[in-house]
Amino acid sequence: MESSCLDLALEGERLCKAGDYRTGVSFFESAIQVGTEDLQILSAIYSQLGNAYFHLQEYNKALEYHRHDLTLTRTIGDEVGEAKASGNLGNTLKLLGRYDEAVVCCQRHLEITRAIYDKVGQARALYNFGNVYHAKGKSICWTGADPGEFPEEARVALRKAAQYYEANLSLVQVLGDRAAQGRTFGNLGNTYYLLGEFEMAVAAHEKRLLIAKEFGDRSAERRAHCNLGNANIFLNQFEVAADHYKRTLQLARLLKDRAVEAQACYSLGNTYTLLQEYARAIDYHVKHLEIARELNDRVGEGRAYWSLGNAHTALGNHQQAMYFAEKHLEIAKETGDKSSEDTARMNLSDLRLVVGLKSNSNIHPSIFRNTNINSPLLPLSYQHYPKLSGSLDTIGEDGFFDLLSRFQGNRIDDQRCSLLDDQSPLPAHSSPSHTPPVAERKSISECETPLQDPGHFLELLASSQARRLDDQRVSMSHFPGLRLNMPHTHSLYSHLEASAEQTEGDDVFFDMLVKCQGSRLNDQRCTAPPCTTKGPTVPDEDFFSLILRSQSNRMEEQRVLPPGITQSKPD
Question: Whole-model pTM above 0.90?
Answer without folding.
Answer: no
